[in-house]
Amino acid sequence: MSNRAVATDAQPAQTDAGSPPPPTGPDRRPVPLARRLALSVWFWPTAFAAVAVGWRLGSPEMWHDELVTIDVATRSTGQIRGMLASVDAVHGAYYLFMHAWTTLFGTSPIAVRLPSALAMTLATACVALAGRRLFDHRTGVAAGFVFALVPTVTRFGQETRSYAFVVLAAAAATLFLLRALERPGWLRWGAYTLAVAGIGLVNVVALTLLVGHGTAVLLHCWRKRAWWSLAWFPLAALGGVALAAPVILRGMKQAGRQISWIPDSSPWTVWEQAYGSTLLAAAVTALAAIGLLTHLRRDAVARTVSATLVAVLPVPVILVASTGEINYFFSKYLLFLLPAWAVLAGSGLAVLRRTPLVAAGLVVVAALSVPGQLAMRGEYSHSWYTYPQARAFEPLSYSQAARVIEAGYQPGDGLVVGDVWWWLTEPGVRYYLPADISPRNVFQARTAAQRNELFAADCADPASCLRDEPRLWLVQPTVTDTPMTGLSKKAAAVLGERYQLAQLTHVTGMTVALLQRRG
Prior knowledge:
The protein is 59% helix and 7% strand. It has helices at residues 3-9, 33-39, 43-54, 64-73, 77-84, 92-105, 109-134, 137-149, 151-156, 163-182, 186-202, 209-224, 227-243, 245-258, 267-275, 278-295, 301-312, 314-321, 338-350, 355-375, 398-408, 425-432, 448-451, 462-465, 489-498, and strands at 414-417, 440-441, 444-446, 457-458, 471-476, 499-507, 510-517. α10 runs antiparallel to α11 and α16 (278-295) crosses α19.
């Protein structure tokens, strides 16, 4: 064998960024799969994230945002499309996905929350791989663990809403961008285009990530003189935005109706709510600063600046956009930034260099996250989206209200619910009632699905809608001793004339009253 052939055989094979290289030299035995996984940058953070997100996945009470998802997802595709024309278009892709998912797997708490859990687990792998590509293996592992330890990561990984998919799309877009800049090609830029489209289909605000991406690409092209990437990026980004354009345009028209309620809050208040922990928000921000300052004195200046631009630049853009009538600077809308900040925090931990020291740093981060993790696993934790600040409203237990009705239900009983539709009182109670208990809503003229809306329409003349039901279950989303005061004047008058209070039960945040027909 020639010397040239020997030299060629000795070269290590090209490997994926997330896996260790195969052995070189005389030992040509393949590395077992289990060992390759154990040594990969993404495996242990992702496994930890899967366990953390899966812990008590089905336990927290459904709250009204999740009930909206279940209510819409269980409609027909035609009814979903009809509703999206007037409201909630920004969640349309997610609703259609959940429609298919619930058709296959049902609507149990674990079933409807599992897609979000899987999305957030995959996002952890993307964070670890991005950290390795930007810095090194140690940074990737640390970044993946930091991301998985953030309380809101596991919290929204358990919610039947689209936020976990927003985070996954943002993390994947950043990873695909790094791969495309490393070795440009239409497949890699195509993957980035699809990730950008995914962002636009689930959260328009998260498209501000493109500002950070674009600036990072410009810096890369200037440094590497790789001007082809400067041509590829706008094509790929605009292609992704174009794919999501119908959702983006309709969502912008509906914004005034859907999110005009968002209150103004100080930037730090929103930032700590985005983490679900004051201590962890401060720790991640401090670690990111350490990583930035440390790497500015090394050979990783350009990569560090690029990562910082991706993490920071969307924030002022969202703040400027929020100076008008609508406030977009909302904690749940900032979750897409957590992957980039986790990478920066991982680079700060990796400054410790030795693996035991990095592990000790992660233990400290884990300890800081414990209060938030426990708070977000409570029975009514999902409605506490303002944590660690005070609750925006008292929690509601639809399950307790349903158990009261189930215990006393008789065939022929009717149902009356409070007028405040956004609490989703009826869908919440029905979700927890057995399938064979389905009392008629006596004052409902048209269901939400029939109206292509999020809420139903009541009878204009309540008296004409009653069918002389012998008993009615009245459910109010508040604790009160006078349950009829929460109804319209007409409905309260006809009920007071024909029915009398037979039973009053207070549950968490709600009142269940049994009305008996007079005479």
